UniProtKB/TrEMBL annotation:
Protein name: RNA pyrophosphohydrolase (Di)nucleoside polyphosphate hydrolase
Source organism, top-level taxon: Bacteria
Record domain Nudix hydrolase: where: 1-132
Taxonomic classification: Bacteria, Bacillati, Bacillota, Bacilli, Bacillales
Family to which the UniProt record says this protein belongs: Belongs to the Nudix hydrolase family.
Length: 151
């Protein structure tokens, strides 16, 4: 990666009955770190479509995006500059089935007990905690902020 390169990433919190779905990374650079389903936006891909695609690829679940918590700009644990678009998703179909080459495990975590995770167990802990604080505080924004891909 060159100094000026920026990585566009999407991630999604899937929340059901006060619990959020977390996945445990299986990629070498972030092995055994807990994260939201997430991944890179592919060239020419719409951001909202990318978020749904990543959830499907990593978990087997179909989701409808309902809100965003915002856009986050940070240097990742793998030393990349990241622009992260985070969404809230509602399950609409599919079955929980992990993409084993990238995902080692998953679990539903009670939002009120999330502090039991140690920072070293989380991928980019400050960002994950900031996102979950926004969720718990109800700081959610409409998807209309995002315009579909322009032709």
């Amino acid at each position: 990666m060159t100094q000026n390169e920026i990585v566009l990433v999407v991630s999604t919190s899937i929340i059901q009955e006060g619990k959020v779905l977390m996945i445990k990374e299986n990629k070498a650079s972030v092995k055994n770190k807990w994260n939201f389903p997430s991944g890179h936006v592919e060239k020419g891909e719409d951001i909202l479509e990318a978020a749904c695609r990543e959830v499907k690829e990593e978990t087997g679940l179909d989701v409808k995006l309902t809100h965003t918590t915002g856009i986050y700009n940070f240097i990742s644990s793998t030393d990349h500059q990241v622009i992260l678009f985070h969404f809230i998703g509602q399950i609409t179909g599919g079955f929980l089935s992990l993409q084993e080459e990238e995902i080692a495990d998953s679990k539903w975590v009670n939002l009120s007990n999330f502090k039991s995770f140690k920072d070293e167990e989380l991928r980019d802990a400050k960002v994950i905690r900031q996102i979950l604080d926004a969720v718990k505080a109800g700081k959610l924004y409409p998807l209309e902020l995002f315009h579909t891909k322009l032709s």
